[in-house]
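At this stage, I wrote out one protein's amino acid sequence and its backbone structure tokens, and that material follows here:
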Amino acid sequence: MEATVNMNSFYPANKAPLKPSAFCSLPLGAILPKGWLRRQLQIQADGLTGHLHEFWPDLGADSGWLGGCGESWERGPYYLDGLVPIAFLLQDDALIRRAKQWMNWMLESQKGNGWFGPERNNDWWPLGVALKAMTQFYEATADGRVMPLMQRFFECVSRDLPSRPLESWAVYRWADTAISAIWLANRTSDKNALKAAHMLMRQGYDWARNFVTFAYKERSSGYFQHETHVVNNAMAVKTPGISYALTGDEFFREAVYKAIENLDRFHGQVTGVFSGDEHLAGLNPSQGTELCAVAEYMFSLEVLLELLGDPIFGDRLEKIAFNALPATFSPDMWAHQYDQQANQVLCKNDEDNWWVNNGPESNTFGVEPNFGCCTANMHQAWPKLASHLWMATPDDGLAAVVWAPCTVNAVVRGGAQVKIEVDTNYPFEETAALTIRVSEPVAFPIHLRCPIWSKDAFASAAGKKKDLIPGTFTMIEREWKDGDTIELTFPMPTAAERRFRGSVSLTRGPLVYSMPIGEKWVKYRGEEPHADYEIYPTTQWNYGLSVNIYHPEESVQIQTKPMGDPVFSPDGAPIEMFVKGRIVPEWQIEHNAAGLLPESPVKSSEPLQTVKLIPYGCTNLRVTEFPLLDEI
């Protein structure tokens, strides 16, 4: 009988006494982006991510995280948490040198008591972010300084936390530090690491009970409260999962699902995120969602995929990544918003606005609109998505958890080296092709996630067709030879979703569709290419749609065209959806945003027109939730 090698010897999964994880993330660099995804990372590197240090003081040479006297709290670690993965995913020598510059200072900064980082920082919270960057750096480089520093730090946590307890942000974001403690424990069996993780959990806020009982059902009142802070909530979606890993208590596992359910029910947006500008803001599509919340919700889902293995987290991750994420950047990624809106008809720096308690420039595009946390933290979203597309499985195989073009290099059953090439234009196309590369035949399982929305999906391998069940993983296990392929088809149905005040939104597969609005960009501050801009509409936007909500495919026409560059831009959109609509005259701009949606269905005597929709992520100004016309 052929001997097998436990996958955990290559990719350390949760060890006892931790609850076993469903999957195990592959080390940084095992998955390399291809196609449109690699191009997106390159656009990011060529934009703010690659150039911020040249003109933004908080990430310049004077940063406290480079030994200077400048900003010494969270912004350096936030940036490094994205710089490290994008540098190694693109294999960009200049970015790698810059990441090493930051990391070298950090790794040499540790004091005798285990504390590290700038002298001016006395807060536990930013060290947790720094550790996340450090674990990725170790996976890419095997730098021998990382684990000893982490061991000394978690000894410090175990020793000092009783007398120096968590405060403020650290209380609500404790799980981000515990993740690194679990990472270390799985690789070294360090007892202080797990002890520290449990201590952090006991001192940290009980997000699980918060999400189960969920008292925050209304638009926030406007005063600061950690429990309703949008980024805290986005980070916290994973927190019950971390508690479940530490304790095995099913209450925590179920709390993950209650978190998503309640945030959707009371504050959800059609793109898969929830509102928060700066705090939970209800269902109105004219309320905003902070960019940090988009990035952190994505990371929470990546963690939950690994811990729990539920394909529903892959569905949600794709929806956010392919819609909300690109829409909050300018197409060239030289500018970003603090807040994006599902119905975003005007981006203007004005005190008269819809925000709960954000500043007047929150939905303008620029370097540092409203507050600089997003300027530092936005860099992690695309690269961490790329590094979590596939995961190792307990049966010594591999699982495709998110679909995008990439190359996977991994070790599978028997210690065999395997390369899988994933060629696809998903989410813009319905098909994907996997090519397996091995030096000699090897048997191992491949688990394929079928999106929840896809009906009649199938996979073809070795001349055999296998139906895929929506919302599940399907395993194909066989002896794979070099050049073997799997062809996948995920038919993308058009769906109509009823939203706020009876409005309607249209989706197709993982993509949400919006009506792009003609736009005029007006610079109001700074120097190009890193200036700050308002955007004014140049075309009418206040349309209602005529849609058969029970059979929306009868109401739309789909046209495809070649993918543009950048694809996430109004001109680059490779898919267009056409639907009939009429102007709804009473729906007007209020407080520099789309006014309150009229209750649907609505009547309009305006001429019937053909309205073009494109993927949400390709828009800058848009309408996404439309009044439903009373005529079908």
Remarks:
- Residues 277 and 531 are 23 Å apart (CA to CA).
- Residues 250-267 form the longest helix (18 residues).
- The chain is about 30% helix and 20% strand.
